[in-house]
Amino acid sequence: MTYNVNDFDSVDVVNSDRDHVWHHLAHHKPFEKTGPMVIVKGEGMRVWDAKGNEYLDAVSGAVWTVNVGYGRTEIADAVRDQLVTMNYFAQTAGNIPAAQFSKKLIEKMPGMNRVYFSNSGSEANEKAFKIVRQIAHKKYNGKKTKILYRERDYHGTTIATLSASGQHERRHQYGPFVPDFVEVPHCCEYRAQEGADMSQYGVWAANQIEKVILQEGPETIGALCLEPITAGGGVIEASTGYWPRVAEICKQYDILLHIDEVVCGLGRTGTWFGYQHYGVQPDIVTMAKGVASGYAAISCTVTTEAVFEMFKEEDDAKMGYFRDISTFGGCTAGPAAALVNMEIIENENLLENAAVQGEYLRESLKGLMSKHEIIGDVRGKGLLVGIELVKDRTTKEPVAESVVIAIAGHCMENGVIIGRTNRSFKELNNTICLAPALISTQQDMDRVVTAIDNAIAETVSKM
Asked: Mind listing the UniProt keywords for this protein, alphabetically (predicted)?
């Protein structure tokens, strides 16, 4: 397929963007010379920029969102039809797509029962934090307000969610932060802490959480917030034994388990939700990116009925109900898109495809390790894959972030968009991150692997 760049004035669009748009996560000084990249069309796994260049997108919209691929007319049509019929009313009242999507979503989440709508992953996690804090006041006389979060995990861009960020460069210059957020150690076996029990690292890593709980006082801790697989922090899956022990600890100390599925949810790892690989039952689950594959803004904070019941009050004067609102949580486009998104995942067997193509991708990348000593580790689950790059495999000294930037740049120049840990840590911004759409084919995976292979070879030759 070719894209006709004459459908618009590309120079005018690029100039307007450069002069007026404030981009996310971007240094703007270089745009004065080169102009920003402007994406104008997407179809399947591919996108086109304003200059007519075609790219294979291996990160689903750069931030791991477009799970079912670009150009899905059935989602766009559903959104259009819904908006013409009823576009918006605050979630103080109900609407048809929200009710229908909630029912369908809960069918995929045994043990969960209530869906609170908002419009971003950060906001979904904010709602969860507010739920935990309000429970602390309603049930524990203002105690149990502390929320634990894990080193290397990430939960959003707001001040409260940054307070729960285990990626310290993302926090830089944004303090002071909200009190009563407490960090627990990471669970990356490849970067195991000194003195760790490597014979059962997963259990050992979970027990480090218990140590923090005992230091802080179990009576002060309301929730533990974890990603099922650390995503932007380096694509880290916990080792065997970790999750059962985490669940056991939470139950023992009456701590709510909040699992942040903003990245992993809706099929990314080969199951509907990442936590479902590990046999644990959360109290709160948050999700956003893949819920509607980017076709509309939507996020969900999902709770058990037991959590929901804590907010029922006979007497309104007690102000015990959840006094929260998300303006665009009342937009019907999100759940309308999400319904069709789920149908596509089901009808096209995309959970199975994510598992199969993800395994193929990881094995193909592991095959590059014999060629490139710079590859220290390949890890992930489903179509969430990380490649950690090191100067030396024995010492595991990480490469500089500039090396990963160069590799990503080489891939871009050759028509493949990949991701990376981006200004998150002082020394560990050394992981290539891949999250291609669930519709990926083996041919797509081969092209990604070839691009990375060539980019590493070229970059290393210049080091």
From this structure: Aminotransferase, Pyridoxal phosphate, Transferase
CA distance 237 to 231: 9
Q: Using the predicted structure, report yes or no on whether residue 65 has a pLDDT greater than 70.
A: yes
Rounded alpha-carbon distances, angstroms, from residue 312 to 126, 301, 316, 320, 447: 20, 17, 9, 7, 54
Angle of helix 350-366 versus helix 442-461 axis, rounded to 10:
30
What is each CA distance from 307 to 131, 218, 221, 257, 321, in whole angstroms? Answer: 9, 19, 16, 11, 12
* Neighbour tally for 463: CB within 10 Å: 11
**What confidence tens digit (pLDDT) does each residue in 212-227 have?**
999 999 999 999 999 9
Single-letter code of the amino acid located at 389: L
Strands annotated E in 178-331: 181-184, 221-226, 229-230, 236-237, 256-260, 284-287, 299-303
Write out pLDDT tens, residues 109-151: 999 999 999 999 999 999 999 999 999 999 999 999 999 999 9
Neighbours of 91 (CB within 10 A): 19
Give the global pTM.
0.96
Per-residue tokens: 270: 């080969």
Return the DSSP state at 239: P
Question: Which tokens belong to 173?
Answer: 């210059």
Distance CA 194, CA 208 (A): 12
